[in-house]
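A student in our group prepared the protein record below, which I am reviewing. What it holds is a sequence and that sequence's fold in C-alpha coordinate form. My question to you is simply how this chain folds and whether the C-alpha coordinates agree. Do not assume that whoever made the record got everything right. I have pasted the whole thing underneath without changing anything:
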Amino acid sequence: MSVSNGRMESSLVHEILSHLGLANKTAAWGTLGTLRPFLSFNVDKDVQRLLEAIAGQGVDQGTIVDVLTNRNGEQRQLIARAFQERTQQDLLKSLQAALSGSLEKIVVALLKPAAQYDAHELRAALKDISSAEDVGVEILSTRSPPQLQECLTIYKHDFQVEIENDVRSETSGLLRDLLLALAKGTRESYSGIKDYNLAEQDAQALQEAGEMGTGETWIMILTQRNTEHLNRASVIRNIPLYFAEKLHQALQGAEPNYQVLMRILISRSETDLLSIRAEFKKKFGKSLYSSLQETMRGDCRSALLALCRAEDI
Protein backbone atom coordinates (compact mmCIF):
# COMPACT_ATOMS: atom_id res chain seq x y z
CA MET A 1 0.00 0.00 0.00
CA SER A 2 1.39 3.37 -1.01
CA VAL A 3 -0.45 5.30 1.69
CA SER A 4 -0.56 5.11 5.44
CA ASN A 5 -2.56 6.64 8.26
CA GLY A 6 0.28 8.90 9.24
CA ARG A 7 1.98 10.71 6.39
CA MET A 8 0.64 11.24 2.90
CA GLU A 9 3.03 9.61 0.44
CA SER A 10 4.09 11.57 -2.62
CA SER A 11 2.31 9.13 -4.93
CA LEU A 12 -1.08 9.94 -3.44
CA VAL A 13 -0.37 13.68 -3.55
CA HIS A 14 0.28 13.19 -7.26
CA GLU A 15 -2.94 11.21 -7.62
CA ILE A 16 -5.00 13.94 -5.96
CA LEU A 17 -3.46 16.68 -8.08
CA SER A 18 -3.89 14.57 -11.20
CA HIS A 19 -7.47 13.46 -10.76
CA LEU A 20 -9.71 15.38 -8.42
CA GLY A 21 -12.12 18.03 -9.58
CA LEU A 22 -12.17 16.76 -13.15
CA ALA A 23 -15.75 15.61 -13.56
CA ASN A 24 -17.56 18.86 -14.27
CA LYS A 25 -14.68 20.20 -16.37
CA THR A 26 -15.31 17.58 -19.07
CA ALA A 27 -18.43 19.40 -20.23
CA ALA A 28 -16.27 21.92 -22.08
CA TRP A 29 -14.90 19.11 -24.23
CA GLY A 30 -18.27 17.51 -24.93
CA THR A 31 -18.13 18.04 -28.70
CA LEU A 32 -14.60 16.74 -29.11
CA GLY A 33 -15.16 13.01 -29.12
CA THR A 34 -14.03 10.80 -32.00
CA LEU A 35 -17.29 8.86 -31.95
CA ARG A 36 -20.50 10.63 -32.94
CA PRO A 37 -24.00 9.26 -33.63
CA PHE A 38 -23.94 7.41 -36.96
CA LEU A 39 -26.09 9.56 -39.26
CA SER A 40 -27.19 6.68 -41.51
CA PHE A 41 -28.02 4.46 -38.57
CA ASN A 42 -30.38 1.58 -39.40
CA VAL A 43 -30.77 -0.78 -36.50
CA ASP A 44 -32.25 -3.61 -38.57
CA LYS A 45 -29.38 -3.52 -41.05
CA ASP A 46 -26.84 -3.54 -38.22
CA VAL A 47 -28.51 -6.54 -36.58
CA GLN A 48 -28.44 -8.38 -39.91
CA ARG A 49 -24.77 -7.58 -40.45
CA LEU A 50 -23.87 -8.89 -37.00
CA LEU A 51 -25.93 -12.05 -37.51
CA GLU A 52 -24.15 -12.73 -40.77
CA ALA A 53 -20.77 -12.00 -39.15
CA ILE A 54 -21.20 -14.75 -36.55
CA ALA A 55 -23.36 -17.24 -38.52
CA GLY A 56 -20.88 -18.25 -41.19
CA GLN A 57 -18.11 -20.82 -41.06
CA GLY A 58 -15.64 -18.19 -39.92
CA VAL A 59 -16.35 -15.21 -37.71
CA ASP A 60 -16.16 -11.91 -39.60
CA GLN A 61 -14.30 -9.86 -36.99
CA GLY A 62 -13.95 -6.90 -39.36
CA THR A 63 -17.71 -6.46 -39.65
CA ILE A 64 -18.20 -6.72 -35.88
CA VAL A 65 -15.54 -4.06 -35.28
CA ASP A 66 -16.89 -1.83 -38.03
CA VAL A 67 -20.42 -1.83 -36.63
CA LEU A 68 -19.61 -1.44 -32.94
CA THR A 69 -16.89 1.21 -33.28
CA ASN A 70 -18.93 3.38 -35.63
CA ARG A 71 -22.05 3.60 -33.47
CA ASN A 72 -22.24 5.61 -30.26
CA GLY A 73 -23.24 4.07 -26.94
CA GLU A 74 -26.96 4.78 -27.33
CA GLN A 75 -27.03 3.24 -30.80
CA ARG A 76 -25.16 0.14 -29.60
CA GLN A 77 -27.82 -0.37 -26.91
CA LEU A 78 -30.55 -0.09 -29.56
CA ILE A 79 -28.76 -2.73 -31.62
CA ALA A 80 -28.53 -5.05 -28.60
CA ARG A 81 -32.26 -4.71 -27.87
CA ALA A 82 -33.24 -5.24 -31.51
CA PHE A 83 -30.98 -8.31 -31.70
CA GLN A 84 -32.70 -9.75 -28.62
CA GLU A 85 -36.17 -9.11 -30.05
CA ARG A 86 -35.31 -10.66 -33.40
CA THR A 87 -33.36 -13.72 -32.26
CA GLN A 88 -34.43 -14.21 -28.63
CA GLN A 89 -30.70 -14.30 -27.88
CA ASP A 90 -28.43 -11.93 -26.03
CA LEU A 91 -26.10 -10.08 -28.40
CA LEU A 92 -23.31 -9.82 -25.84
CA LYS A 93 -23.36 -13.55 -25.10
CA SER A 94 -23.57 -14.38 -28.80
CA LEU A 95 -20.51 -12.29 -29.58
CA GLN A 96 -18.62 -13.66 -26.57
CA ALA A 97 -19.23 -17.17 -27.89
CA ALA A 98 -17.87 -16.17 -31.30
CA LEU A 99 -14.83 -14.20 -30.12
CA SER A 100 -11.94 -14.65 -27.72
CA GLY A 101 -8.99 -12.83 -26.22
CA SER A 102 -8.62 -9.08 -26.14
CA LEU A 103 -11.16 -8.47 -28.93
CA GLU A 104 -13.80 -10.23 -26.86
CA LYS A 105 -12.99 -7.92 -23.92
CA ILE A 106 -13.33 -4.82 -26.11
CA VAL A 107 -16.65 -6.00 -27.51
CA VAL A 108 -17.93 -6.65 -23.98
CA ALA A 109 -16.85 -3.14 -22.95
CA LEU A 110 -18.50 -1.56 -25.99
CA LEU A 111 -21.80 -3.36 -25.44
CA LYS A 112 -22.13 -2.74 -21.74
CA PRO A 113 -23.86 0.53 -20.80
CA ALA A 114 -21.18 3.02 -19.71
CA ALA A 115 -22.29 3.07 -16.07
CA GLN A 116 -22.27 -0.71 -15.84
CA TYR A 117 -18.82 -0.88 -17.41
CA ASP A 118 -17.54 1.66 -14.87
CA ALA A 119 -19.12 -0.28 -12.01
CA HIS A 120 -17.44 -3.50 -13.08
CA GLU A 121 -14.09 -1.77 -13.57
CA LEU A 122 -14.37 -0.34 -10.05
CA ARG A 123 -15.20 -3.71 -8.57
CA ALA A 124 -12.26 -5.38 -10.30
CA ALA A 125 -9.92 -2.57 -9.20
CA LEU A 126 -11.01 -2.74 -5.56
CA LYS A 127 -10.34 -6.47 -5.54
CA ASP A 128 -6.83 -5.89 -6.91
CA ILE A 129 -4.82 -3.66 -4.59
CA SER A 130 -2.35 -2.83 -7.36
CA SER A 131 -5.03 -1.00 -9.35
CA ALA A 132 -7.39 0.23 -6.63
CA GLU A 133 -5.74 3.65 -6.40
CA ASP A 134 -5.32 4.29 -10.10
CA VAL A 135 -8.65 3.02 -11.44
CA GLY A 136 -10.73 3.88 -8.38
CA VAL A 137 -9.69 7.52 -8.24
CA GLU A 138 -9.87 7.91 -12.03
CA ILE A 139 -13.46 6.75 -12.34
CA LEU A 140 -14.83 8.28 -9.15
CA SER A 141 -13.36 11.69 -9.90
CA THR A 142 -13.83 12.01 -13.68
CA ARG A 143 -17.51 11.09 -13.94
CA SER A 144 -20.23 13.73 -13.59
CA PRO A 145 -22.54 13.50 -10.56
CA PRO A 146 -25.39 11.84 -12.55
CA GLN A 147 -22.95 9.39 -14.16
CA LEU A 148 -21.42 8.56 -10.80
CA GLN A 149 -24.81 8.06 -9.16
CA GLU A 150 -25.90 5.67 -11.92
CA CYS A 151 -22.60 3.79 -11.67
CA LEU A 152 -22.93 3.33 -7.91
CA THR A 153 -26.56 2.23 -8.21
CA ILE A 154 -25.54 -0.45 -10.71
CA TYR A 155 -22.60 -1.42 -8.48
CA LYS A 156 -25.01 -2.16 -5.64
CA HIS A 157 -27.41 -4.03 -7.94
CA ASP A 158 -24.82 -6.20 -9.68
CA PHE A 159 -22.67 -7.04 -6.66
CA GLN A 160 -25.25 -6.82 -3.87
CA VAL A 161 -23.03 -4.54 -1.82
CA GLU A 162 -22.54 -0.82 -1.38
CA ILE A 163 -19.26 0.40 -2.83
CA GLU A 164 -18.43 2.00 0.54
CA ASN A 165 -18.34 -1.47 2.11
CA ASP A 166 -15.88 -2.72 -0.50
CA VAL A 167 -13.74 0.39 -0.11
CA ARG A 168 -13.55 -0.09 3.66
CA SER A 169 -12.68 -3.78 3.39
CA GLU A 170 -10.24 -3.60 0.48
CA THR A 171 -8.32 -0.35 1.13
CA SER A 172 -6.90 1.54 4.09
CA GLY A 173 -5.47 4.85 5.22
CA LEU A 174 -5.76 7.96 3.08
CA LEU A 175 -6.65 6.03 -0.06
CA ARG A 176 -9.67 4.61 1.76
CA ASP A 177 -10.66 8.06 3.03
CA LEU A 178 -10.24 9.57 -0.42
CA LEU A 179 -12.33 6.92 -2.20
CA LEU A 180 -15.05 7.11 0.44
CA ALA A 181 -15.22 10.90 0.08
CA LEU A 182 -15.43 10.66 -3.70
CA ALA A 183 -18.10 7.96 -3.56
CA LYS A 184 -20.36 10.22 -1.49
CA GLY A 185 -20.72 12.58 -4.43
CA THR A 186 -21.04 15.61 -2.14
CA ARG A 187 -19.19 18.13 -4.28
CA GLU A 188 -20.68 21.63 -4.12
CA SER A 189 -22.53 23.01 -7.12
CA TYR A 190 -21.21 26.24 -8.62
CA SER A 191 -23.54 29.07 -7.56
CA GLY A 192 -22.15 31.61 -10.03
CA ILE A 193 -20.58 33.65 -7.22
CA LYS A 194 -16.79 33.71 -7.14
CA ASP A 195 -15.38 33.66 -3.63
CA TYR A 196 -11.82 34.83 -4.17
CA ASN A 197 -11.10 35.02 -0.43
CA LEU A 198 -12.05 31.39 0.07
CA ALA A 199 -10.00 30.37 -2.97
CA GLU A 200 -6.95 32.09 -1.46
CA GLN A 201 -7.57 30.49 1.93
CA ASP A 202 -7.93 27.04 0.39
CA ALA A 203 -4.78 27.45 -1.69
CA GLN A 204 -2.85 28.39 1.45
CA ALA A 205 -4.36 25.49 3.41
CA LEU A 206 -3.43 23.03 0.65
CA GLN A 207 0.13 24.34 0.55
CA GLU A 208 0.51 24.02 4.32
CA ALA A 209 -1.02 20.54 4.29
CA GLY A 210 1.45 19.46 1.61
CA GLU A 211 4.39 20.79 3.59
CA MET A 212 3.20 19.03 6.76
CA GLY A 213 2.48 15.78 4.97
CA THR A 214 -1.15 15.51 6.07
CA GLY A 215 -3.95 14.45 3.75
CA GLU A 216 -7.23 15.26 5.49
CA THR A 217 -7.24 18.88 4.28
CA TRP A 218 -6.57 17.82 0.70
CA ILE A 219 -9.38 15.30 0.75
CA MET A 220 -11.91 17.69 2.28
CA ILE A 221 -11.22 20.59 -0.11
CA LEU A 222 -10.68 18.63 -3.29
CA THR A 223 -13.72 16.38 -2.94
CA GLN A 224 -16.20 19.02 -1.72
CA ARG A 225 -15.40 22.32 -3.44
CA ASN A 226 -16.93 22.96 -6.87
CA THR A 227 -14.66 22.73 -9.88
CA GLU A 228 -14.76 26.46 -10.68
CA HIS A 229 -13.47 27.16 -7.19
CA LEU A 230 -10.75 24.51 -7.49
CA ASN A 231 -9.69 25.96 -10.81
CA ARG A 232 -9.17 29.38 -9.19
CA ALA A 233 -7.06 27.67 -6.49
CA SER A 234 -4.92 26.28 -9.37
CA VAL A 235 -5.19 22.62 -8.39
CA ILE A 236 -6.90 21.18 -11.49
CA ARG A 237 -4.70 19.74 -14.21
CA ASN A 238 -5.29 19.73 -17.94
CA ILE A 239 -7.73 16.82 -18.26
CA PRO A 240 -6.86 15.70 -21.81
CA LEU A 241 -3.16 15.84 -20.91
CA TYR A 242 -3.80 13.62 -17.90
CA PHE A 243 -5.42 10.96 -20.09
CA ALA A 244 -2.74 11.37 -22.77
CA GLU A 245 -0.08 10.60 -20.16
CA LYS A 246 -2.00 7.54 -18.97
CA LEU A 247 -2.28 6.25 -22.53
CA HIS A 248 1.42 6.83 -23.13
CA GLN A 249 2.31 4.95 -19.96
CA ALA A 250 0.02 2.08 -20.95
CA LEU A 251 1.91 1.74 -24.24
CA GLN A 252 5.29 1.37 -22.56
CA GLY A 253 6.99 -1.87 -21.59
CA ALA A 254 7.20 -5.24 -23.25
CA GLU A 255 3.43 -5.68 -23.23
CA PRO A 256 0.90 -2.83 -23.54
CA ASN A 257 -1.68 -2.46 -20.78
CA TYR A 258 -4.71 -3.38 -22.86
CA GLN A 259 -7.17 -2.79 -20.01
CA VAL A 260 -6.10 0.83 -19.53
CA LEU A 261 -6.02 1.51 -23.27
CA MET A 262 -9.45 0.00 -23.71
CA ARG A 263 -11.01 1.79 -20.74
CA ILE A 264 -9.75 5.25 -21.73
CA LEU A 265 -10.38 4.98 -25.49
CA ILE A 266 -13.93 3.72 -24.95
CA SER A 267 -14.89 6.00 -22.06
CA ARG A 268 -13.49 9.16 -23.70
CA SER A 269 -14.50 8.38 -27.29
CA GLU A 270 -17.70 10.44 -27.04
CA THR A 271 -16.35 13.32 -24.95
CA ASP A 272 -12.77 14.53 -25.44
CA LEU A 273 -10.63 11.98 -27.28
CA LEU A 274 -9.76 14.52 -29.98
CA SER A 275 -8.31 16.78 -27.28
CA ILE A 276 -6.46 13.84 -25.74
CA ARG A 277 -4.95 13.05 -29.14
CA ALA A 278 -3.79 16.66 -29.50
CA GLU A 279 -2.16 16.66 -26.05
CA PHE A 280 -0.52 13.30 -26.78
CA LYS A 281 1.06 14.63 -29.97
CA LYS A 282 2.17 17.84 -28.25
CA LYS A 283 3.70 16.08 -25.23
CA PHE A 284 5.33 13.06 -26.87
CA GLY A 285 6.05 14.25 -30.42
CA LYS A 286 4.16 11.36 -32.00
CA SER A 287 0.48 10.84 -32.66
CA LEU A 288 -1.59 8.50 -30.51
CA TYR A 289 -2.75 6.71 -33.67
CA SER A 290 0.83 5.99 -34.78
CA SER A 291 1.80 4.88 -31.29
CA LEU A 292 -1.10 2.43 -31.17
CA GLN A 293 -0.36 1.25 -34.68
CA GLU A 294 3.29 0.52 -33.85
CA THR A 295 2.74 -1.02 -30.43
CA MET A 296 -0.51 -2.97 -30.62
CA ARG A 297 -0.66 -6.53 -31.82
CA GLY A 298 -3.40 -9.10 -32.06
CA ASP A 299 -7.08 -8.99 -32.90
CA CYS A 300 -7.92 -5.94 -30.77
CA ARG A 301 -5.62 -3.65 -32.74
CA SER A 302 -8.19 -2.70 -35.37
CA ALA A 303 -10.84 -1.91 -32.75
CA LEU A 304 -8.60 0.43 -30.76
CA LEU A 305 -7.40 2.16 -33.91
CA ALA A 306 -11.01 2.60 -35.01
CA LEU A 307 -11.87 4.28 -31.70
CA CYS A 308 -8.82 6.56 -31.98
CA ARG A 309 -10.06 7.27 -35.50
CA ALA A 310 -7.21 8.99 -37.38
CA GLU A 311 -3.64 10.18 -37.62
CA ASP A 312 -2.75 13.65 -36.33
CA ILE A 313 -0.47 15.39 -38.79
Q: What stands out?
A: The mean pLDDT is 83.
